[in-house]
Write a structure and sequence with these properties.
alpha+beta; Helix Hairpins; HSP40/DNAj peptide-binding domain; 3 domains; 19% strand
């Protein structure tokens, strides 16, 4: 008897793409291997739901299935469901949403600085008429010696041996694999073996600076002003963050 993929997901042949996706998510949650360890029946239902979604979640495959059935899919090159690795790699967007989010990507190039917040109290008259203020804050700025790379001038970073430069490591959990940021290089793929003497490899140095700002007349209580580029410095050529006062 030919498989009815619509029946497998519990939707009608007229179901919209979003309805099909929701139905699959519901079944995947219910029969997921990690929630039903050792349950062969649940495992089969999970795989059946994945196969059904592989067809009905793909517009072209769904058209072929609707017109010619499973036989038409096979004629077009479809070979049936794969193993668990295939299932999880094919539906990374769905499983990423349900089971902890997508894997973190390694840092690529520039790393922007963090935003900062400074609480400033002003008088009623300053709020009414406006005023110019000067604040002093301590923040981390881009190291001038290494230009934020954290490296001693003239040296290059080494490829991380733990992740082989990928910035991610893979852990086996039950029936599937989970990618996480490499704990050794923190997702960057490289290691600083010759750190800058001034910032000790951080790419940032702590400095105290005075910042001037103009408070507009009639500013509301609790309002915040954004000073672009007055936050913490960036690393590896990244832009500085902003300061919110």
């Amino acid at each position: 008897m030919e498989t009815d993929f619509y029946k497998t997901l519990g939707v009608s042949p007229e179901a919209a793409a979003e309805e099909i996706k929701k139905a699959y998510r519901k079944l995947a949650m219910k029969y997921h291997p990690d929630k039903n360890q050792g349950d062969k029946a649940a495992e089969e239902k999970f795989k059946s739901a994945a196969e059904a979604y592989e067809i009905l979640g793909d517009l072209e495959k769904r058209k072929i299935y609707d017109r010619y059935g499973v036989a038409g899919l096979k004629d077009s090159g479809y070979s049936g469901p794969g193993n668990f690795d295939d299932i999880f790699s094919s539906f990374g967007d769905i499983f990423g949403d349900m089971f902890g989010g997508r894997p973190r990507q390694r840092h690529q190039g520039n790393i922007p600085g963090n935003d900062l917040r400074y609480d400033l109290g002003i008088s009623f008259m300053d709020a009414v008429h406006g005023a110019e203020k000067e604040i002093e804050l301590t923040r981390r700025e881009t190291c001038w010696t290494c230009d934020g790379t954290g490296l001693r001038p003239g040296h290059k970073p080494a490829t991380c041996a733990t992740c082989k430069g990928h910035g991610q490591v893979v852990h086996a959990q039950g029936f599937f694999r989970v990618q996480t940021a490499c704990p050794k290089c923190h997702g960057e793929g490289t290691i600083i073996t010759e750190p800058c003497n001034d910032c000790l490899g951080e790419g940032l140095v702590r400095k105290t600076k005075k910042v001037s700002l103009k408070i507009p007349a009639g500013i509301d209580t609790g309002a915040r002003m954004r000073l672009r580029g007055e936050g913490e410095g960036g690393r590896k050529g990244g832009q500085p963050g902003d300061l919110y006062v």
